[in-house]
Design brief:
single chain; about 210 residues; alpha/beta; TIM Barrel; nine-stranded mixed sheet; globular; binds S-adenosylmethionine; binds the ligand Nc1nc2[nH]cc(C(=O)O)c2c(=O)[nH]1; binds iron/sulfur cluster; binds magnesium ion; 7-carboxy-7-deazaguanine synthase; iron-sulfur; metal-binding; QueE_Cx14CxxC
């Protein structure tokens, strides 16, 4: 059984695939926060910008099998077939690696999808995921230490960029922490990238574009 908050079609807003048409499959639940506002102050991850509680969002629900889940994702894709671009699903949450398993990855592949994940990196990934974006959180034990994008929300005291820059990722991105201090955080992230060019800026473009 897979529990999913919402499934929707939009453009990838962040990271190296920014602008890419994508189905987002947002799994319910996270191991670093209950998702309840009342618990935010005592959560391990306190800056989350996402509602991942329940299965009541657009396209959300409980899917009994991997085939059912992949069918719902395939039905949500709206792109026309083209020989040079595959349909693309971004598994996120909540924490997708609490639920995404080999059967789900295989089912997405069998529907012709490339499979990406956005993860906090505290759980192992099933084999065959095509694109791994890890976003480490202060105070957690990072076990996914290789992948494609290492996308660090910045600033996080106790999770400074230096701690991650030796890991086996293709790109190292700083994403300004959204919230009341977004403007200051953006300025600080720009300054950091300018001084440490291993790091590049990731802007959450969907928030400015007014898309999901
Ligand atoms: C909601 S999380 C879900 C996936 C996974 N749990 C994770 O943390 O990577 C999706 C992305 O949004 C980022 N994010 C969450 N809250 C944010 C905030 N306030 N400002 C900037 N990025 C944020 C996360 O770091 C992650 O890269
Ligand atoms: N457009 C858009 N791009 C995204 N990239 C990562 C997201 C996420 O919440 O994981 C996200 C999201 O919620 N919307
Ligand atoms: S780990 Fe990801 S989903 Fe969980 S609370 Fe943090 S940002 Fe939100
Ligand atoms: Mg988001």
């Amino acid at each position: 059984m897979y529990r999913v908050k919402e499934i929707f079609y939009t453009l990838q807003g962040e990271g190296s695939h920014v602008g890419r048409p994508s189905v987002f499959c947002r799994f319910t639940s996270c191991n670093l926060w209950t998702g309840r506002e009342a618990d935010r102050h005592r959560a391990i991850c306190r800056f989350c910008d996402t509602d991942f509680v329940g299965t009541d969002g657009p396209g959300g629900g409980r899917f009994a099998t991997a085939e059912d889940l992949a069918s719902a994702v395939a039905k949500t894709w709206q792109g026309r077939p083209h020989p040079r671009s595959k349909p693309y699903v971004v598994c996120t949450g909540g924490e997708p690696l609490l639920q995404l398993d080999q059967a789900a990855v295989d089912a997405f592949h069998s529907k012709g999808f490339e499979v990406a994940i956005e993860t906090n990196g505290t759980r192992p990934a099933p084999a065959g995921v095509d694109w791994i974006c890890v976003s480490p959180k202060a105070g957690t034990n990072l076990i996914l230490t290789k992948g494609d994008d290492l996308k660090l929300v910045f600033p996080q005291p106790m999770a400074e960029p230096k701690r991650f820059e030796h890991l086996a990722f293709t790109r190292f991105l700083l994403q300004p922490m959204d919230g009341p201090d977004l403007a200051v955080n953006t300025r600080a992230a720009i300054e950091y990238c300018l001084e440490h060019p291993q790091w590049e800026l990731s802007v959450q473009t969907h928030k400015n574009l007014g898309i999901r």
